[in-house]
Amino acid sequence: MESYKREFIEFMVESDVLKFGEFTLKSGRKSPFFMNAGAYVTGTQLRKLGEYYAKAIHDTYGLEFDVLFGPAYKGIPLTVAATMAISELYGRDIRYCSNRKEVKDHGDTGILLGSKLKSGDRVVIIEDVTTSGKSIEETFPIIKAQADVEVKGLMVSLNRMEVGKSGEKSALDEIRDLYGFAASAIVTMEEVVEYLYNKPYNGKIVIDDTLKTAIDTYYEQYGV
Q1: Packing angle, helices 3-14 and 189-196, rounded to 10
Q2: Is the pLDDT of residue 104 over 70?
């Protein structure tokens, strides 16, 4: 596992973004873990988060793209942080773009924030986590309606590795099949469990035998 992936797993735990316990998801599933990217609230956290996204995007899609697109609302700070990190780490000036939830009819009009999309633009979409693919379902038509762009791929922070709406494939695999572009993550839950299981971190065991059993049981029902 790359060093930045190990650092990112620790970063999620330190930031109280990745939690373990008993949680009810929007889908109604009872999950032993929960991720909330809204817990990244400080300048230091956002700077580090942007760097992890930048490294994962670089390793997965390279730097031959023009725009980083983040669906509203959580995708907005992600795109800003990641484009800044790409500039600082790799010297590549990527434009950022996000959608509005409502079309603005005065001043800076339209459905988009940040850069406008132009025909021929190569776009990478960035999100926090994808469980059902619903946000892509909403934003992909918006992106394609603005200009004739090429979507190179999607990058999320955590691949939950569970079945999507079809009940057969993961949400990321469903996105690949439905929209025809790649979908990847900085880390997978498999990597998280492998790294944290029965290993002391900050003086305690984050994933002990009991929690590991709960995670295994969850994936027996919902995993892919």
Answers
A1: 80
A2: no
